[in-house]
Amino acid sequence: MSRTLLRSLLELRATATTTRPTTSQLLRPFLVRHLHQTPSQIDPLPQQTQPEQPPPSPNQPLAVSPIPRCGGAPRTTSPATPETLSLLPLLAHQPGKKYLQLYIQGQAYLVTPGDQIRLPFKMPGVAPGDVLRLNRATAIGSRDFTLKGQPYVDENLFECRAVVEGTEAEPMRLKIKKKQRCRRTKTVRSKHKYTVLRVSEVRIKLPGQEEEV
Amino acid sequence: MAVKALHAISQGRNGVGAFILQCKRIDLHYCDWAGSSRGMNGFIKSLLPKFAAAHPEIEFTVSPRPAKHPVAIGHYINGRSKPICVRNMEPYEILKKLELLRDASGEKLKKVTKPVRSINESVRGIWSPYHGNGMPL
């Protein structure tokens, strides 16, 4: 494959017409629970991987829309157009690794398989070893091609899994509060906790053949 | 004869393939007499059997340490340990501390500014002005 600087922008038309209940139920983010959990954590889990969002409004504009905030993003991704599906094999058959621009809780992470993500929060209800299926991505890319979503790539086109590695903390922060003309000082201590994920699997799924890349 | 360093062939990436919990052992120390161990003694009696049964990959050792405060010490695969003093804590507070020890990686706490840590090389390569067709002006 020639290393040209050609960059093919595959357009996804944001046709927010119909949500497909059967496929979207099958491909919901799921959590594989392992045995090493305390009794306090065996409560039934909601969908932890993605923020809870209201369903898309029926009169969604067809034009390019910026990436919505946590509150306004659509719950299901719009299905890929036939044009996208015809061009996707070009991306999938490129040599080398693929990258994903994942979207977790309003923040984007550009990841390749094997990367470690340190989320800026402590994810509730997960234990080390849990597997998360991440299904929101704004872009999939290879060496020469990028598939951009509007705002998200169709979740049936790729499969990304991440393993919860554990919870890490930062060193204790000390903030000294001091007012003028007063000797008294107050020290505020804080120590944030972060959930660490490891991207274990990134696959591009072609509609014809299930096992790909 | 000079000592030759071995080159690291691969770096461990926990979770790619197999996942291995980093905490390998948790030591619990208690005192029968001291009041600060009251919560710890209750924890060992009531909550520890369930917690230990739920974590077969962690080795739990319980031993007395007379006339000292109770301690929970986590030992990790990377050789480090994390001791937590649990004096005057209630059993459920101690359970939270044990969950902290289980979830920790054993590394020293560091301030991290970049959210993604990667050892893969760049997917799209490094831009070069000497390659490609250039831009006609």
Automatic annotation (TrEMBL), chain A:
InterPro entries linked: bL21-like, bL21-like_sf
Keywords, sorted A to Z: Ribonucleoprotein, Ribosomal protein
A GO molecular function held by the record: structural constituent of ribosome
Cellular component terms per the entry's GO annotation: mitochondrial large ribosomal subunit
Region (Disordered): 41-81
Pfam families documented for this protein: Ribosomal_L21p (PF00829)
Domain of life of the native organism: Eukaryota
Record carries keyword Ribosomal protein: yes
Family assignment from sequence similarity: Belongs to the bacterial ribosomal protein bL21 family.
Name by which UniProt lists this protein: Large ribosomal subunit protein bL21m
Organism listed in the record: Podospora anserina (strain S / ATCC MYA-4624 / DSM 980 / FGSC 10383)
TrEMBL record, chain B:
Predominant place of localization: mitochondrion
Name assigned to this protein: Large ribosomal subunit protein mL43
Residue ranges annotated for the Ribosomal protein/NADH dehydrogenase domain, each copy included: 32-105
Keyword annotations of the record: Mitochondrion, Ribonucleoprotein, Ribosomal protein
Family under the similarity heading: Belongs to the mitochondrion-specific ribosomal protein mL43 family.
Source organism of the structure: Podospora anserina (strain S / ATCC MYA-4624 / DSM 980 / FGSC 10383) (Pleurage anserina)
Organismal lineage: Eukaryota, Fungi, Dikarya, Ascomycota, Pezizomycotina
Keyword Cytoplasm included in the entry's annotation: no
Ribonucleoprotein in keyword set: yes
GO biological process: mitochondrial translation
GO molecular function: structural constituent of ribosome
InterPro entries: Ribosomal_mL43, Ribosomal_mL43/mS25/NADH_DH, Thioredoxin-like_sf
Subcellular localization, as worded in the UniProt entry: Mitochondrion
GO CC, one annotated term: mitochondrial large ribosomal subunit
